[in-house]
Amino acid sequence: MLQTIPSCDAQLFSAQAVAEARQRFFSGETAPQGIAAPILRSWTRCVAHGLPAGGRLPAEPLGAGELRQRREKAESLRRRCRPELEALHADAAVTGSLVILTDPTGLVLDTVGSADFADRAAKVALLPGVSWSESVLGTNAIGTALVERRPLEVRGGEHYAEAHGILSCAAAPILDPYGDVIGLLDLSGPAAVAHLHAMGLVQLAVSQVEHRLFEGAFPGLDVVRFHADASFLGTSREGILVFEDYRLVAANRPGLAQLGLGWDALKSRRYSDLFDGSLGRPGEDRRVRSTTGDTLHARVERQPARAPAPPSTPRAAPAAGPRPVAAPEPCFDAATEQALGRAVRLLEAGVPVLIQGETGSGKDIFSRQMHGRSSRAGRPFAAVNCAALPEGLIESELFGYEDGAFTGARRAGFKGLLREADGGILFLDEIGDMPLALQTRLLRVLQEREVTPLGGGKPVPVDFSLVCATHRDLKQLVDAGAFRADLYFRIAQYTVALPALRHLPDREALVHRFWRELAGGAPAPALSAACVEALARYSWPGNFRQFVGTLKVLHALADPGGSLGPEALPAELRDSALQQPQAGTRPSAPDEAPHAPGGACMGDDLQAVTRATIQAALAACNGNISMAARRLGIHRSTLHRHLAATPGHRKPS
Ligand SMILES: Nc1ncnc2c1ncn2[C@@H]1O[C@H](COP(=O)(O)OP(=O)(O)OP(=O)(O)O)[C@@H](O)[C@H]1O
After folding, report:
1. Which residue of 131, 181, 624, 625 is surrounded by the most CB atoms within 10 Å?
2. Least confident piece of the model among 122-136, 324-338, 375-389, 395-409
3. pTM to 2 decimals?
4. How many angstroms is it from 431 CA to the middle of ligand 1?
């Protein structure tokens, strides 16, 4: 029988044999008996890396923001592995183990399975956000399988670090059709419980993921599926080879194994080097003879080529059904664009930048543009919303904490956002909501450029550029004693005041621009002149957030080929359009006042509109704040703020 899945060649040795081999290895014997070859190779690498086998190895989890970014980067892998994670989940729950998905570096992305074992695994930092690379944590199934590029089991004392002896783990790397490792699946359980099928289950799951990677992935190319046994065609055990003009360009492991090839065959072998006769017609099932002399059942398919849309031709809209509405590219008026250029220059010179503006005016987008245009673009952008975090958590979120610093702290400690921003940009959103005691600690970090985690530990030097944002008038807060003057002068060395949308020039052009952009290249539905005028005139208390949200709704409502009139507008816009002056006239004076942070420029009309919009949303959501905030497209904390400022409003109990 031809080998279809590369096997894990770790022999089974008794715990006693492993303990003895371990003892001899650490007494200086380089090749003791009683230990599998891949494990011995790994121990030898660990010694060469200078890793200690006793004591604790550093297992520092990433902060929430960085983990989110790494998960986003691996989103397609996570999506493709979901069915396997779910299938293995049931087995893991029964056998008291955990299913683990990592990225190609060994960083744990997701874990599912037995809650009881998850607790014990957390003690040795087998947690999302921790890297289990061999060079950091020593011999372990995840890291060592990645180094060896093969499925591998590591049980109990085979782990390099003594502390990991409680684990028994089976892992298999996931390879893409070009032979590159794109991730890894692992099943880990308690070492005391023998889980005989762990390796088989993981390998099966990985071969299914790898098989699915070929679905629709090679438009216009010839995909040959084959196996010695016809009943395996269409399953994850079939061999798959992809040819471009008869040249082998991609493959799966069973395909290469059946023909005795390695990954170096890609690009170097042609169809005629591998099979006798011609390639055959797409869709035809037939027998082929490999040049190694095996008779195989084969099926050729040609995946439909994707027709590239000529750049000048707009994409045709689908005949029916809602179109996905694209997110608009950030766009700034000339003055804001200039301010952005200046802000980047100052940031490069080490000057902190403060961005002020009403909710939804684009403070977050502006700061991300600064990051993207600065020399720190490839480095972290660590954002923390000081208003959204419960007061008790901001401190640990920013400064991190040591192992077991307080009840509920992750056992392996937490790095904290200040250190996560190292080398990049720290974005402190809603800085005006930072509690006074924390302001003092932040000031010390800015002065000394080092962070001391909660629960003690050595101060760690940090290098980040600081960008802060707030909708509040910080100067006023300073005067009122709610914000430290020394911190204010440190963070507000250059202030950008983002204008409210209603103060931007040429809003009709803005409506047209966003309307076109939201169509994402497809022909935009027609927007009547009256509609454009109403949209351009409205005061937009939620600024860009509300503006973009409204345009998205209108896009989704539009019939292809139809025209949208003002009747399609939400009630508050329709009503406000009716109250507005006639076309061509400018909005009333209070609304035209130059922007001042903290809503100081808001006229009574605008506040009334804001209040009415909020009340309508709350009524529609039966008073549910979170739901109403989502409906309005604002953060829950922003809604709370508005409610607190509304005369006569009572907090929901
Ligand atoms: N200049 C812009 N160009 C395009 N879209 C924008 C722009 N500014 C804001 N937006 C849109 O508005 C939404 C809100 O923007 P952002 O989160 O940057 O506002 P903010 O001022 O930080 O709001 P808040 O104070 O409530 O946190 C974004 O998701 C984006 O869709």
Report:
1. 131
2. 395-409
3. 0.48
4. 17
